[in-house]
Amino acid sequence: MQRRVFAKSLWMKIVRRGEWMPEMGVVINQLIYERSAPTEAEPAWTAIDTIPDGAEGGSCLPAATRINIASTTRQFNLARRVLEGPDICNIDAMPSFQLQQQLGNTFQILGDYATIEWDIRYRHEYFRLVQTKVVLDDCNNPTTSTTQATTYPSACPNKPLALNTVARLSFALMRDGAGAEALLRYNGAPLLTVITDNETAGNITRQNAELRNDIRWSNQSNMLVRDFGVSTSIESFVFLTDPYPRRFSCSAGTFTEIAAFTLTAATKGQKAIINSSWVTAANTETFIFDQGVAQFLIPRPPVAPHPNFIFDPVDYTGAVQLKNIINRECNPDGNIIYHRLHMGAASMPDQPERGVAIVHLRCDPIGCVATCGS
Fold first, then answer.
1. 156 — phi, psi (to 5°)?
2. Nearest CA to 295 among 218, 365, 348?
């Protein structure tokens, strides 16, 4: 008896998670203090070459330039999703072959399902919260939105991702502080994290023969990246591969996401398989990832806020919880159980200017033509 599994994604390990702030309601406004900087190419300094004669205050009261202090308010809220497994009757389970192993497989399948749900949520929320969204329809001037829009700009990509495209986008990110919380550094310099599919990462390496000789070991100081099986970097980037990135069809600038999984008949019930339309989709998504873009806050509701108000604990991480609810009509003897998974989190925006979402042509496993050069 065996159990089929899906490839493990990196999102559960790489995103930043925290706890929802109690007694703050379900909608919170976050105040972000913006940066201040001089806007003159060369700010004017006043020379002190004479002692003013008769001027009020003398040299002690020079003219002052006021520094502007700006702030941005971003609102975020809790969201949740509830999953349930099938009803299981202990009488029906009595004659089952290797009952304990079957039940163990069922439990693991439910846990895997919850993990995939979290992965999907993190991809969508990271896309929603990043400030820069790029459609790769031009090598030097791709269609770009920098207003934290909820969709990609209205254009269809016509080029695969190349290393120089990522490099151009990284310049703005570094100036906005992306290197401050880089997952990995080499000789003290930050390496930006690029999350893409295996085909795109392989194509970028193949298209840069001269850079293959410059691939250097760079994971000695960061166990997190080593967990993903990555031990090399190219120029100032480390490429992490997501087995199930978002993929799309595009028509007249309108994107339609294609689900990575679909259902087909098994001997009993329906089984999940990789969606063939997803495999052959024309467009795929790559992120320049920074942990500072967002934090995902999971609530922990009170269980005993008052001696006369006692609640059962709810684990909003999506942990599989066993339920045996006595009901006169449906479960009078308590011999019918099921499993329930309750997931809840708030996506708190932090530094959206540090991340980029790029939609581009998908490469075949054997490579594709990089029309933007290397």
1. -105, 135
2. 348
Tally Cβ neighbours within 10 Å of residue 138: 15
Distance in angstroms (rounded) separating the CA atoms of residues 149 and 134? 11
What DSSP letter does each residue of 289-340 carry, written as one string?
E-GGGEEEEEP---S-SBTTB------TB---EEE---BTTTBTTS-EEEEE
Bridge partners for 57 per DSSP: none
**Which amino acid makes up residue 339?**
H
Cα(314)–Cα(330) distance, integer angstroms: 23
DSSP state of 224: H
> What residue spans define the domains of the chain?
1-40+67-302+345-374
Q: pLDDT per residue over 236-294, tens digit each?
A: 888 899 999 999 999 999 999 999 999 999 888 888 999 999 999 999 999 999 999 99
Is residue 32 a contact partner of residue 71, using CB atoms and an 8 Å limit? yes
Q: Which residues is 331 bridged to in the sheet?
A: 327
Render 340-370 in DSSP notation, one character per residue.
Answer: EEEEEEEEEE--GGG-EEEEEEPPBTTB---
Distance CA 48, CA 59 (A): 8
Query: What predicted TM-score, i.e. pTM, was given to this entire model?
Result: 0.83
